[in-house]
Specification:
14 strands, eight-stranded mixed β-sheet, alpha/beta, two-stranded antiparallel sheet, globular, binds cytidine-5'-monophosphate
């Protein structure tokens, strides 16, 4: 399986970049839990301070474009979990030299949007993983926004978490999530899990994945 984790850094010039507050903890915990259950795992990670999980293939990337390429290089896999907080934008023209202050006029940064890695992986095709799981970090209307995201991305499950400042999720040790699964109806079904350590969320998620995955494969036999 493949797991994406962490933020991406998008250079503005050789000394500055656009980033976000993702620590990578949840994605790394998922990679560890999957490995412990016996999966062969490739973890594609943006810059984090975390140690590489044992017996997991770690591919370190910096930018969203590198993460997309690394993801394509790892396919096909059976299961893909996109936990990375991929930057939505990069600057259209990266400065070759440090942009200098010039006493008055401010630099204009034109942004371009990144391709969506989760959406790309979720597209039907011979390399589509059997199970694709995305994350939805929301600060309000968690369930509604996550249901919308499930449809928009075309993935099978969404793990939705509240990242409002009061939740302490970004950089913190705990996470409170909803697991939403695509069904034939518009909204899918969902389970609400209690506030848990990110490690516990990961173990529970991977047990649920393993169960659903083996049921699916038994049904297909
Ligand atoms: O649209 P939004 O960024 O909120 O969606 C979050 C989900 O989409 C996460 O699973 C994230 O890893 C994935 N994503 C991605 N590539 C992007 C943007 C988001 O894989 N460019």
């Amino acid at each position: 399986m493949l797991v994406t984790a962490g933020p991406t850094h998008e250079p503005i010039d050789p000394v500055r970049y656009i980033a976000n507050r993702s620590s990578g903890k949840q994605g790394y915990a998922i990679a560890r839990a999957a490995r412990q259950l016996g999966a062969m795992v490739t973890l594609i990670s943006g810059p984090t301070k975390l140690a590489a999980p044992e017996n997991v293939t770690l591919v370190s990337v910096e930018t969203a474009r590198e993460m997309l390429q690394a993801t394509k290089d790892v396919l096909p896999v059976d299961i893909a979990i996109c936990a990375a907080a991929v930057a939505d934008w990069r600057v259209a023209q990266e400065g070759g030299q440090k942009i200098k202050k010039n006493g008055g006029s401010l630099p204009q940064l034109d942004l371009v949007e990144h391709p969506d890695i989760l959406k790309t992986i979720s597209r039907p095709g011979p390399k589509r993983p059997q199970l694709v799981i995305g994350f939805a970090a929301e600060t309000q209307n968690l369930l509604k926004n996550a249901q919308k995201k499930l449809r928009a991305k075309g993935c099978d499950w969404i793990v939705a978490n509240d990242v409002s400042p009061a939740s302490g999720t970004f950089g913190g040790e705990q996470n409170k999530v909803l697991i939403i699964r695509a069904m034939n109806d518009e909204e899918g079904d969902y389970e609400e899990w209690p506030l848990l350590d990110k490690d516990e969320v990961a173990v529970r998620l991977m047990r649920t994945v393993a169960k659903s995955f083996s049921n699916k494969n038994q049904a297909a036999e």
